[in-house]
Amino acid sequence: MDISVVLPVLNEGGNLGDLLDRLRNTLNQLGLDYEFLAVDGGSRDNTREVATAHGARVLEEAFPGYAGALAAGFREVRGDYVLTLDADLSHEPAFVAKMWRARESADIVIASRYVRAGVAYSSLGRRALSRMLNVALRRMLSVPAYDLSSGYRLYRREVITEVPIKGRNFEVLEEILVRAYAAGFSITEVPFTYFPRHRGVSHARVLRFGMDLAKSAFELWRLRNSLESADYDARAFYSLIPPQRYWQRARHHIITSWARGAGLTLDVGSGSSIIIQSLNNAIALDYNFAKTRYLQRLKIPAVRASAFALPFGEGIFDCVISSQVIEHIAREPVLFDEMWRVLKPGGTLIIGTPDYSTWQWRTIEPIYGMLMPWAYRDEHISHYTRQSLSQSLERIGFVHEETAYIAHAELIMRYRKPTTVKLSVAPPSPLLEARQA
């Protein structure tokens, strides 16, 4: 099926029949296979009868509220794409054609009142409040959309199957958008003209909505500033916080200078960093699928895999980079054996991690932990020093070439794999064999 239409309804008997007829005409003109799902929130008029008479399947809310209606509808959809819109005729059904044509440009298409050429014909107070909230949320949550509260959207089905719904009411609109973007899905907006509802009264309650939105926004802000967010690494390069911006740019300068002109490069645990975006002949590898999805949108070859079992043959790469990765994973010798294995003889290894032997890092980390306790501090499970990391690498046969520090705290070292060694090292450990299996 091409498209599933999810309609949250509550006492919309006066509008629903006209809406479904007009939607059917538009979808038929587009030549699409479709279904209508009307999710009823306890209507006391003839909404359910009108929905059934016009070919819609009627569902019950998963739990009370607008979010419960979306959750119930999303569970039942069969289409490759999912369309959501209001049943009050404020969302013009014929506009679906424009959204359908835009579907290849992004995973989520928003009918937007606030991009250029978008218009909202509503009361001055409501329009001002809506614009203010959207501007604040756009900046607070760093999401590239001007109309985060529009409920007129076209989703690729993968979005609604992968993004959890935790909200209870209308704040779920912002939540879905932010969680989807943090998961690496893309967003586009199509200019839309909004008119007030045709009949009936709005079911939105401004005070309740404001309280729900404030609570949701704080949780989403924490998500956007966590390592789980697909674009976390890229955003940090442009951070408004001077120390963070300095740190990211210093790391970028050191690593890209050393890797420049190296040939085919593998960035192990690349995230969405500007480093991988700056390299000319590189493959990104990360365990977080959201980040590989994000990079593939930028046309960067990316693979989801484990650093303990790199999915490449021996001697493939001229350069291997591993920056700010090894402190997040178990301290296993196979980790460095794998980097050795995929490097060509004469190839370069660039590796970076906090140096826990320096007082600078031992001071910085607790302060960062107090300021942002939900961030990555507690994810540092392996604590390296320059001496311990050097011993791990030189045990295999790597030859040290250069060392650099950022703020005397973050250690970055460059090593060379000698040209006089065989392509393979000792037989894989049982741990490696188990993980590859």
Characterise the protein shown here.
With 437 residues, the protein is of the alpha/beta class. It has two domains: 3-224, Spore Coat Polysaccharide Biosynthesis Protein SpsA, Chain A (Alpha-Beta Complex), CATH 3.90.550; 232-436, 3-Layer(aba) Sandwich (Rossmann fold), CATH 3.40.50.150. The chain is built from 16 helices and 16 strands. It has helices at residues 13-29, 47-53, 66-76, 96-101, 124-141, 157-162, 172-182, 206-224, 232-237, 242-259, 274-278, 289-297, 333-342, 359-371, 386-396, 430-436; strands spanning 3-9, 34-40, 57-60, 81-84, 108-112, 119-120, 153-156, 187-191, 193-194, 265-268, 282-286, 302-304, 317-323, 343-354, 399-406, 410-416. The strands form three sheets. The chain has a seven-stranded mixed sheet, with helices on both faces. Helix 13 links the parallel strand 13 (317-323) and strand 14. Mean pLDDT is 90; it is low at 423-427.
Largest sheet: 7 strands, mixed
SS class:
alpha/beta
Indicate the CATH topology of the largest domain.
Spore Coat Polysaccharide Biosynthesis Protein SpsA, Chain A
Assigned CATH architecture of the largest domain: Alpha-Beta Complex
Low-confidence stretches: 423-427
Give the fraction of residues assigned to helices: 25-40%
Strand order in space, largest sheet? 3-2-1-4-7-5-8
- The dominant shape is elongated
Q: What number is the mean pLDDT?
A: 90
Query: Which CATH class of the largest domain applies here?
Result: Alpha Beta
Radius of gyration: 26 Å
Q: Provide a count of the helices.
A: 16
> Using DSSP, what is the number of strands?
16
Count of domains: 2
Strand content: 15-25%
The span between the termini is 37 Å
- Tell me the name of the CATH homologous superfamily of the largest domain: Spore Coat Polysaccharide Biosynthesis Protein SpsA, Chain A
